[in-house]
Specification:
- By secondary structure, the protein is α+β, with helices and mostly antiparallel strands.
- The protein folds into two domains: 237 residues, no CATH class; 139 residues, no CATH class.
- The chain contains twelve helices and 15 strands.
- The protein is elongated.
- The N terminus is likely disordered.
- Keywords: Signal.
Length: 389
């Protein structure tokens, strides 16, 4: 959502504590060129879809008018494919290309949506004004000069990247909610496949691992409130799709443990949400301590590659530490810095991907209006004991 702050860049350039293990550079973890290629492929696919849909608008106009309302500004491309009113070959090929780029080939539903850019455009479009069909460019949004769009004849129009158009505009892009839901499942599978212990196994670990308050309750930390700063994103970006990566050390062995927290409610910057959502299950983490990285869904994310890179980075950090028990929870920020450093450089210059990070959250503590290290997120955390029966 915002550039990586200078303060956090300095923090990542050194170890969490003097004299401890160093972090892994992005180049060591994953070549940036791979992400650039993915984003380029996605941009090409979205451009072709925008052109194709614009030329066939007359065939789908009635369907869009029946689907798009003030309560629902988008339609999944599956609805267009199933309507049998247009030539769908180009749409199907582009959808397959997008799934491949994101590592979600097994998903049967389309990952592409057609979204009216803003509710303020609804009345004019419903009154018969001809729409444009646009897509988000690749690269750093602060450097966008214009947005490419196509009229109903397939002719290109250039729109201001930061001033909302008065003319109705449909945005062709990845269905963020569906893509993120499927992507997080892939990430969980990768984490589990690399040997992370199941919750049931963790319950059998001895009491000295500090994982349970007692035999009859489960210790958790919940998000009571959360707010992200308003970064004035371009109008074409739409709502955010936020998730968290909680990381710490496995209670039963000297390995990192990573967990995923989906935050589907966290749509808009500048808005305070009160989800009362469980974010951390303390039976999964040694020393009653963990970090949490906030991320935003990005069209160009290949979730399998992302999960693999993050887990490999965390594992590499652990292997550099000769005796984790000596340092204790002080090693957790080092793992977090390794995870963040494993992300491609380009992610820190785009409004997508990295959002903020919380270092060293402790079990049983309350944090009111706690600012993330990057200054972009303000969150209130509270402990919650859940009885087993």
């Amino acid at each position: 959502m915002k550039k990586l702050p200078t303060s956090l860049m300095l923090l990542l350039s050194m170890t969490a504590f003097a004299g401890q293990a160093s972090t892994i550079t992005p180049a060591e973890a994953k070549p940036v060129s791979s992400q650039v290629k993915i984003k380029a492929n996605l941009t090409t696919s979205k451009r072709l879809m925008a052109q194709d849909i614009s030329r066939q608008y007359s065939k789908i106009s009635s369907l869009l008018h029946s689907e798009i309302t003030q309560y629902n500004l988008k339609v999944n491309v599956d609805n267009l494919l199933n309507a049998n009113v247009m030539d769908t070959k180009q749409l199907q090929q582009a959808d397959l290309s997008i799934k491949s780029a994101k590592g979600l080939e097994s998903v049967t539903e389309s990952l592409v949506e057609l979204r009216l850019a803003h509710e303020s455009m609804l009345a004019a479009w419903q009154a018969g004004e001809s729409p444009l069909f646009a897509f988000a460019p690749e690269g750093n949004d602060s450097q966008w000069d214009y947005i490419e769009a196509y009229d109903v004849d397939g002719n290109i129009q250039l729109l201001d990247a930061y001033e909302m158009p008065e003319r109705p505009v449909f945005v062709v892009g990845v269905d963020g909610q569906r893509s993120l839901k499927e992507g997080l499942q892939v990430m969980r599978s990768v984490f589990a496949g690399e040997g992370q212990v199941s919750k049931a196994a963790l319950r059998s670990v001895s009491a000295n691992a500090s994982i349970m308050a007692d035999d009859d309750s489960l210790s958790t930390t919940v998000i009571k409130k959360i707010r992200l700063n308003d970064d004035q994103e371009p109008w074409i970006s739409g709502d955010a799709e936020i998730y968290g990566i909680v990381n710490g050390v496995d209670p039963s062995r000297d390995e990192p443990y990573l967990d995923i927290v989906d935050m589907p409610y966290l749509d808009n910057d500048g808005t305070t949400y009160s989800p009362n959502q469980i974010a951390i299950y303390w039976d999964r983490y040694r020393w009653s301590a963990a970090d949490m990285i906030l991320m935003e869904h990005d069209d160009g994310t290949n979730y399998k590659e992302l999960a693999t890179a993050l887990l490999e980075a965390a594992t590499a950090i652990m292997r550099l530490i000769p005796d984790p028990a000596v340092q204790g929870y002080a090693i957790i920020p080092q793992i977090t810095n390794g995870i963040i450093s494993a992300m491609p450089d380009a992610w820190f210059t785009n409004d997508d991907d990295y959002v903020d990070v919380y270092y060293t959250l402790f079990e049983g503590r309350t944090y009111n209006d706690h600012m993330g290290a990057g200054g972009n997120a303000k969150t209130s955390f509270e402990p919650l004991e859940i009885p087993s029966r």
